[in-house]
Specification:
elongated; transmembrane; membrane
Length: 106
């Protein structure tokens, strides 16, 4: 297994962990703050791995998808997208999901 494949698999694992942690942060037991934090951290790690992947392999004909990120500006778009996704998810949870849990407690 090459380093490229390892980074792709690792990024995929962290993204799947993010999704699982995010959806299991809310349930019968209410809002689980630590699990929700870990979901954000796994998303940031996934973004960091994708940025590293693009930095190391863009323009080297290893993957057509990675070759798209052949300039530093395009690579920084990965970090920007991860931050935007994290901010959007946090905003949705804060204004749409959390009020449901505060109403249920009363």
């Amino acid at each position: 297994m090459t380093a490229f494949n390892s980074l792709v698999i690792l990024a995929l694992v962290f993204f799947l962990a993010h999704v699982v942690l995010l959806f299991t942060s809310f349930g019968k037991n209410g809002y689980q703050k630590t699990r929700y934090l870990y979901s954000h951290i796994t998303l940031w790690i996934c973004g960091g791995l994708l940025f590293l992947l693009a930095s190391l392999y863009a323009g080297k004909q290893v993957s057509g998808i990675v070759d798209v990120f052949d300039t530093p500006v395009k690579q920084l778009l990965i970090i920007g997208l991860v931050l935007l996704l994290s901010f959007t998810a946090h905003t949705i949870v804060r204004y749409l999901v959390m009020p449901k849990y505060t109403i249920d407690r009363r």
